[in-house]
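User: Some background: our group keeps a shared notebook of sequences we're curious about, and every so often someone picks one and asks for a predicted structure to add to the entry. Today it's my turn. The entry only has the sequence so far, pasted here. Could you supply the structure so I can complete it?
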Amino acid sequence: MMFLQFMVWSAWFLNIGPYLNHLNLDTSLTSAFFFACLISPFIGGQIADRYMPTQIFMGISHIVGGILLIILANVTGAAGIWWLLFRVWGTIGWIIAGLLMTYWWKYLKPYPMNWSDLATLNEAARSAARTSYLNVESWLFIMPGIISIIYGFFCFALPHTPPSKEGSNPWAFLDALKMLKDKNFMMFMIISFVVSTQLNFFFFSIPIFLEYLGLNRANIPMTQVTAQITEMLTLFLFLKWVLPKLGIRMCMAVAAFAWASLYAAAGLGGIWWLVVAALPLHGFAYVFFFVVGQMYVDTAAPTQIRASAQSLITMVTIGLGMYCSSYWVSWVTDWFTNTAVTPAVVNYHSLFLVPCILMFICSVAFIVFFQEPKSETAQE
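Assistant: Of course. Here's the predicted structure to add to the notebook entry:
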């Protein structure tokens, strides 16, 4: 189930940055997806807890979501894309999805040409070629849409999970807000929020930059999943050995520094293979930051509100942080885009310097302001 879940998400999410760029649309449109992430636990949780068996609700949701993704492949307007992404809220599945999209675009439904080659055509030929190119690229929605529908029917075969007569308290996570009185936990939340606002530079800006550097569009999904391969290896082979020696504070500081290094390679290198070589740093950093952060929350939170505390940190990072990140990346990109020339040129050196500096500041902030928790629970 989790394999299919992440396969659906990654197939379109890893590729949407260049796609929106080719439509001359802003990546801030993806804020609809993260806004849905922010509110869906309340709506979906209440339906599954009170009114409908969980497996039935999941099945219906993913079938509807799959149909919406397929519809999205034929929508090119900003308003339509925003509303469809808002409704679609859907680490091995992530990897397979990237490899599948690369295989599809290279061998089964290849691109007619590189996007940059369109500029060399006359106006009539450019229009026809652009339409052909976008028809191929729109499979980034059709493919996960089909998988999502299959996933939806699969959910009907999951064990029966009837709704509770009493249901759960949708505001239970507010109990965790009392933990913010602890300065250490407050600092952890603030830094985690800032870190999450920089992540869409990896998901949106890096793929566009790789295409700008000359990497074939079909190869970009495959190169990005090197980060997820590193994530899996770090989780199973590296984390258990490193965490007891470095501790929570240094692990999270090292994670933020790894992201800073990745953005430095992108901004200072300007060479596609150097950027690709740095991509695994994302997987390493993701485990050392988010997984270790979840361990810290379990250590810091009283037993009776641990689930609420985990929900809170997820909403602050994946929900609110990534939502703000969609607008932040768009604003920074616009700031460093020279529109006086045609086509407009982005100063990627300066653009990636922004998340590089902010991630470095977060790394230092963890070392200076965050105190290692006394409990040994997180290291067990």
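Suggested note for the entry: Residues 246 and 254 are 10 Å apart (CA to CA). The first strand starts at residue 337 and ends at 338.
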